Amino acid sequence: MNKQPEKLVIRPKLKGEDGHKTFSIRLRDETVERLDYIAGRTNRSRNDLINMLLDFAMDHCEIEEETK
User: Fold this and answer.
1) pLDDT 10s digit of each residue in the chain, 68 long?
2) How many angstroms separate the most distant Cα atoms in the chain?
3) Structural domains counted in the chain
4) pTM, 2 dp
5) Does residue 55 belong to any structural domain of this protein?
6) Contact at 8 Å (CB) between 36 and 30?
7) Is 18 part of any domain?
8) Is 35 left (phi over 0), alpha (psi -120 to 50) or beta?
9) Do 35 and 49 touch, CB atoms closer than 8 A?
10) Domain that holds residue 35
11) What angle separates helix 46-59 from helix 29-42, to the nearest 10 degrees?
């Protein structure tokens, strides 16, 4: 007796479902050159480096309140 396979339910993939968002930014040529240099020395991708550098910067930044 052949049993019909159950249905495969495929739902649309939501943006950011993997915890990441994609967007574009403009960088100065010098910044890209520096990223490429670090990427080459560390065997990491630009994307990986940008995430690491942004996380570090956000963890170590200080917001100065405006004084009147």
Assistant:
1) 567 768 767 676 666 567 888 889 999 999 999 999 999 999 999 999 999 999 899 988 998 988 87
2) 83
3) 1
4) 0.68
5) yes
6) no
7) no
8) alpha
9) yes
10) 29-59
11) 100
